[in-house]
What does this fold into?
Amino acid sequence: MPRPFESFTHDETERTRLSAAASSDCARMFFTQQGRVVHKWVHYLDIYERHFAVYRNTSVKMLEIGIFEGGSLDLWRRYFGMDATICGIDINPECASRVTLPNQVRIGSQADPQFLRAVIDEVGAPDIVLDDGSHIAHHQRISFDTLFPLLRVGGLYVIEDLHTSYVPGIYEGGYRRRGTAIEYVKEMVDDMHIWYHKKKPRTPTQQMIGAVHFYDSLVVIEKRSIERPGHIKVGG
Ligand SMILES: C[S@@+](CC[C@H](N)C(=O)[O-])C[C@H]1O[C@@H](n2cnc3c(N)ncnc32)[C@H](O)[C@@H]1O
It folds into this structure.
């Protein structure tokens, strides 16, 4: 799937510049990847480290939407360790042969709620969902609406390549266009503050948004069970 605004680079100077800008363990593992190809924007790597490090060497369950060459699942295996459950889904049946055990693969569309629910029934509730699939707005919304309620409380829902929300045509994007992934997540920010404006929620997140971390082209949404906030005065 071509991604807009990207410049593939095999130029050594550019590679050195980009690798120098990323300092995390995740970045180190990315730049030493052997075998299957993994394709990530370099600034994502330190962001993953910030949010994912707590899950390393645990029995974390991760679902990645979008396998492509299969290298990202291999990267997650090296990063999270052998106790992790790592499952990739992709619409392309050829991806099934690009995943090796203990990593798992299921073939189907991220726009098919029945398929997504069946995967979760089999694999279990994930701690991390990473949507790096079609980047088509209504697919991203269907996946979120289906999977966020099934994510573990305390878990993370990550959407990559949000710049596609600005690209008309195949991605169904456009600047501030209603229904794009980036606008949908902005609505979640309003839903998070429902106590103060009392309007009807626009997303199916209920009071389950602990935080929304926006970065360039990537968002990390924390699922938490939120009580109505209160404030008190102490001291004096
Ligand atoms: C950007 S690539 C994934 C890259 C990979 N995660 C990586 O980091 O190297 C996007 C993948 O999404 C898959 N895809 C496209 N439409 C899809 C859909 N409706 N459901 C699931 N996967 C889809 C494509 O077949 C492709 O393999």
Notes: The helical segments are 12-21, 25-31, 43-52, 71-80, 113-123, 137-147, 181-192, 194-197. The chain has a mean pLDDT of 93. The radius of gyration is 18 Å. Residues 36 and 74 are 8 Å apart (CA to CA).
